[in-house]
């Protein structure tokens, strides 16, 4: 850089700023020469913007404004072509035509494409001849051989190396390479072929329909869907006896039985099997690309059960047949060559009532009991045929027996008729139409005839007119009836059927006399004719009774639960080591309770001797022992915890009260059966905040020395009575 202000006198200083100043670029401050501190890469940054100025070395003042200039880097071919992938994967169908496109690969060059040929690339193939070629300008890979040379069944995978060279492929250019793995995909160009042209199988004659006989194999050089095949039976004497299907997993033909086999009729079969692809590519194979194989199937003889000549039997029998009459005949034979004898029997699970039986030798079914078609019209039984020589070989056949109807039931009224006649009517007035039913079922249909009973023909108040359509009309014979004179009439009607032998019955029709209005509607009948009576119905009475019983049961249950309510246990838990609070239902009345105990018994012990046993009784026990020691004057040791008053104080009352109490204490101490027993109450926790502090006897003085009870007066008004008793002077008790 050269400034106009630089006269060469050394007073000017050059200063550089901008991108890379001081790091990439430095300037000689004396003469303005610009230098690069290291090698520069155009691919990292193609140009730099710098600013320069001159200042006075002595004053530091700028001599001219800053000047901006750009440093551009000229490109050189220092970058080789680069492919985005190291390995490419492509595919092309086998038997493709020459020039079929496979895939395109592209390389990039970081050099400047606008300057020279540094970034101009040319593609070439260095490995993969003569199967593939590459376009030098676009990098498009194509097939180079014809359909006959690109066969997947001969070679499936190819590895091609593509080279990209800059400098337009000239000498001195840089190159980059990549690998392309090309796979030939399958097309259906191979038909299936049987592995064996003749196959032999054997099957038992007892095999059921659908039982597999054998598998036949075929191979196809193709893969996937192109190798899928299906089998068919095209000819042979076993086309109707066998079927073939394709196993979708193994692509094998599975031959199965389609109809029952019989060794005695035909011991072997021969069929022709054809195999072909499910999908045919017409470009490579014709529709007739098939393969054929012969299959011979031998039938093995087995011991078969007897075979009935019919799959089922239908027999008919009149319902009035006598016991022992033959119903029909079943026939079975051994299909094996031995022709074993057959024995017949009835499966009693199908004839629980033992109505039928079968002759064991000839298969004749006959009757054991009388039958009634009106009870059961059909009987279904099963007959068993068993070989004599091998009882395990047996077969069943259903036998359907239909009972034929005979006219053995008389017709009856179809329903119960409620008939009434008005007091004022007219002669030949129809008051009822009746019909009949018959349990029999004649083949020509029912035909019923109605008439009055002969015994009332001439003195009846009503007549019967047969309508000819299996109904009859009941008609009046006079114009008026009196309900008070006769309220009910019984009309006997004879009903006869038209079958042979003719059956008839007499049905009685009840006719009630009622008062009617002008239109003939019933208004009032005699009391017997009323269908309902005033008052509550039976259902209502039953409901009321049930409600009363339920209420009574609830009251009784509530009373019983109230009486049997259990008390809380005295001790809630045995494991609770704290204070156990014992609750009693009875409380003492204190000094005001003059009924709880008579102090006179203590003051006059001799007078209470007669009541000694009664005085010893407790409410919670029954006394069983008498007094162990007779009363006499004796000083017994006091019980633990009992504060005894001075002996001199007993003279204040009549009798020795102290001796009386000591005697009773001694008796209870010496009697092991007299409760309550001594018990130790352990207090693990004490209450807090009480004015009286702890009341436990465990920490109290156990000696017989006198104690000071003046502190009781400090416990408050609740302990005032106790303080008065124990806080008084000894002179008060002397």
TrEMBL record:
The keyword Repeat applies. PANTHER family: CADHERIN 6, CADHERIN-23. Cadherins are calcium-dependent cell adhesion proteins. Residues 3-83, 84-194, 195-308, 309-413, 413-529 form the Cadherin domain. This is Cadherin domain-containing protein. GO terms for cellular component: adherens junction; catenin complex. GO terms for biological process: adherens junction organization; calcium-dependent cell-cell adhesion via plasma membrane cell adhesion molecules; cell migration; cell morphogenesis; cell-cell adhesion mediated by cadherin; cell-cell junction assembly; homophilic cell adhesion via plasma membrane adhesion molecules; morphogenesis of an epithelium. The chain crosses the membrane at residues 540-561. Pfam families: CADH_Y-type_LIR, Cadherin. GO terms for molecular function: beta-catenin binding; cadherin binding; calcium ion binding. Keywords: Calcium, Cell adhesion, Cell junction, Cell membrane, Glycoprotein, Membrane, Metal-binding, Repeat, Signal, Transmembrane, Transmembrane helix. It is found in: Cell junction, Adherens junction; Cell membrane. It comes from the Eukaryota. It is a single-pass type I membrane protein.
């Amino acid at each position: 850089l050269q400034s106009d202000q630089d006269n060469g006198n050394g007073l000017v200083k050059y200063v550089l700023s901008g991108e890379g100043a001081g790091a990439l670029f430095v300037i000689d401050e004396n003469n303005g020469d610009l230098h690069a501190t290291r090698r520069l890469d155009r691919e990292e940054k193609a140009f730099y913007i710098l600013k320069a100025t001159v200042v006075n070395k002595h004053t530091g003042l700028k001599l001219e404004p800053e000047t901006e200039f750009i440093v551009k880097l000229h490109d050189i071919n220092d970058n080789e072509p680069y492919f985005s992938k190291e390995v490419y994967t492509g595919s092309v169908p086998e038997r493709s035509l020459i020039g079929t496109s496979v895939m395109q690969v592209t390389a990039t060059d970081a050099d400047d494409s606008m300057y020279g040929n540094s970034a101009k690339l040319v593609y070439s193939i260095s490995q993969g001849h003569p199967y593939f070629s590459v376009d030098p300008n676009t990098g498009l890979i194509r097939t180079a051989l014809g359909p006959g040379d690109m066969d997947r069944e001969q070679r499936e995978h190819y590895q091609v190396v593509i080279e990209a060279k800059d400098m337009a492929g000239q000498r001195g250019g840089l190159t980059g390479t990549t690998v392309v793995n090309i796979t030939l995909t399958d097309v259906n160009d191979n038909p299936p072929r049987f592995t064996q042209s003749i196959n032999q199988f054997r099957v038992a004659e007892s095999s059921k329909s659908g039982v597999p006989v054998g598998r036949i194999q075929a191979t196809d050089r193709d893969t996937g869907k192109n190798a899928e095949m299906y089998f068919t039976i095209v000819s042979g004497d076993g086309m109707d006896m066998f079927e073939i299907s394709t196993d979708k997993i193994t692509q094998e033909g599975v031959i199965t039985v389609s109809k029952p086999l019989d060794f005695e009729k035909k011991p072997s079969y021969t069929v022709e099997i054809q195999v072909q692809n499910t999908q045919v590519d017409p470009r490579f194979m014709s529709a007739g690309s098939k393969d054929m194989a012969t299959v011979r199937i031998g039938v093995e003889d087995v011991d078969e059960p007897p075979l009935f000549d019919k799959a089922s039997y239908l027999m008919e029998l009149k319902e009035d047949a006598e016991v022992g009459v033959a119903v029909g005949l079943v026939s079975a034979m051994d299909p094996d060559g031995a022709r074993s004898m057959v024995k017949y029997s009835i499966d009693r699970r199908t004839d629980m009532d033992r109505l039928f039986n079968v002759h064991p030798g000839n298969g004749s079914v006959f009757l054991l009991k009388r039958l009634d078609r009106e009870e059961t019209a059909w009987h279904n039984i099963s007959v068993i045929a068993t070989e004599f020589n091998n009882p395990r070989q047996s077969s069943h056949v259903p036998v359907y027996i239909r009972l034929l109807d005979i006219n053995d039931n008389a017709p009856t009224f179809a329903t119960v008729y409620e008939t009434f006649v008005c007091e004022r009517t007219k002669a030949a007035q129809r008051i009822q139409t009746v019909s009949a039913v018959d349990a029999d079922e004649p083949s020509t249909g029912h035909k019923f005839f109605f008439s009055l009973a002969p015994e009332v023909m001439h003195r009846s108040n009503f007549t019967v007119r047969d309508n000819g359509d299996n109904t009859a009309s009941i008609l009046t014979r006079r114009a008026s009836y009196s309900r008070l004179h006769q309220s009910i009439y019984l009309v006997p009607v004879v009903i006869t059927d038209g079958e042979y032998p003719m059956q008839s019955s007499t049905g009685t029709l009840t006719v009630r006399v009622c008062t009617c209005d002008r239109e003939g509607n019933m208004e009032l009948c005699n009391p017997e004719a009323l269908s309902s009576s005033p008052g509550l119905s039976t259902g209502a009475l039953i409901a009321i009774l049930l409600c009363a019983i339920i209420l009574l049961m609830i009251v009784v249950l509530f009373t019983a639960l109230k009486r049997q309510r259990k008390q809380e246990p005295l001790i809630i838990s045995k494991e609770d080591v704290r204070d156990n609070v014992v609750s009693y239902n009875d409380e003492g009345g204190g000094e005001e309770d003059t009924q709880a105990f008579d102090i006179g018994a203590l003051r006059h012990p001799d007078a209470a001797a007669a009541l000694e046993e009664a005085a010893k009784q407790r409410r919670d026990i029954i006394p069983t022992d008498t007094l162990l020691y007779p009363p006499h004057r004796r000083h017994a040791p006091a019980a633990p915890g009992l504060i005894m008053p001075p002996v001199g104080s007993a003279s204040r009352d009549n009798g020795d009260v102290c001796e009386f109490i000591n005697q009773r204490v001694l008796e209870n101490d010496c009697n092991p059966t007299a409760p309550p027993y001594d018990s130790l109450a352990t207090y693990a926790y004490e209450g807090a905040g009480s004015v009286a502090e702890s009341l436990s006897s465990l920490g109290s003085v156990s000696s017989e020395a006198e104690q000071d009870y003046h502190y009781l007066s400090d416990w408050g008004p609740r302990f005032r009575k106790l303080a008065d008793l124990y806080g008084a002077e000894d002179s008060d008790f002397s």
